[in-house]
Specification:
3-stranded antiparallel beta sheet; single chain; mainly beta; 3-stranded mixed beta sheet
Length: 116
């Protein structure tokens, strides 16, 4: 959801692995054992820098993952204004109930940081 479009929910269901969006997102790869390998792609201009990142998560069929990360972006002509962004990606491997993401995930990665 984005403030610019009045926080309308956005979602996408696909039957094949999608390409990551240009503004960050998930890198997905099907592994030989049937698991999906999920790694979050960072937004290139977001602060803070994260030199240490969590390893990729491998989801079994039927599992789902919630991955959260936040950013601060400098802006304005004087550099004193900034914007905040919180990304929450919910990814399920296989068919899922419509209310699945309202529950507790099988796997959770929290990369939210203190933004000063």
């Amino acid at each position: 959801m984005r403030e610019s479009d009045e926080f309308r929910p956005r979602h996408r269901s696909v039957s094949e692995l999608p390409s990551p969006p240009e503004d960050g997102g998930a890198l997905l790869r099907m592994e030989d054992d049937g698991r999906i390998r999920v790694q979050l792609a960072l937004q290139p201009f977001g602060i803070p820098r994260r030199p240490r990142r969590p390893t990729a998560v491998r989801l079994l069929h039927g599992e789902w993952l919630r991955w959260q990360i936040n950013y601060r972006f400098a802006g304005g002509t004087r550099g004193d204004q900034w914007t905040y962004r919180l990304d929450t990606l919910n990814i399920a491997h296989g068919a899922a109930a419509t209310d699945l993401f309202l529950g507790v995930p099988d796997r959770h990665v929290d990369e939210r940081a203190l933004l000063r």
